[in-house]
Design brief:
By secondary structure, the chain is an all-alpha fold. It has one domain. It has four helices and no strands. α1 packs antiparallel against α2 and α3 runs antiparallel to α4. The longest helix has 29 residues. The two termini are 13 Å apart.
Amino acid sequence: MELRPRTLTVRAFLPAAALLILLGWTGLFAITNFSEPSGGTRWAFFFFAVLGLTGLALPAVAFLNKRFPSNPPPTHAVILRQAVWVGIYLPTLAWLRIGRVLNVSIAILIIAGLILIEWLLRLRERSQWKPE
């Protein structure tokens, strides 16, 4: 039995994106409207923010990977990982803002670091890819 890679469609990511958006933004709404700010609710805020933003970024990342194909083609796990990077970036900036240490140079350095990590991971995948 020969396994061929399936073509990447944005539609395949819509159920996961909808679930993440629903969980994330519902949780954020509940945290901000029905709880007092404390240590536990702050971490819940970051957790739900990562979920919600990952859900929002998932279709966009899938579309960009479909629009600009690469070799080897990205798997579903790669696209989910790239969406999670977006979901992690913005709550990280919010966390730094709480401590009043966020500035433009730190935000640029963080995004450059995340892009470098993703580029190195894709480079590793490319070096291990064996076309059939």
